[in-house]
User: Fold Motility protein from Salipaludibacillus neizhouensis.
Amino acid sequence: MDIPALSMGMSQMNVQQQASLSLMKKAMDTSDQQVDFVAEMVEQPSIQKLEQAAQPHLGASVDFKA
Assistant:
């Protein structure tokens, strides 16, 4: 058995595993940020703003006739 070669091989596998884990965490963080952004854009007030922008004349005045 070649102990130094085995040790180097195990060390390289460990580095590769750590790099993969780090990349996975970065991808998860990015996806979390995207989910937060989409959730913020879909909130009710944003939808109302879009509707008002599309039809600005609706809801601008209220008629109080008795």
Observations:
- The two ends are 98 Å apart (CA to CA).
- Residues 18 and 24 are 10 Å apart (CA to CA).
- The mean pLDDT is 83.
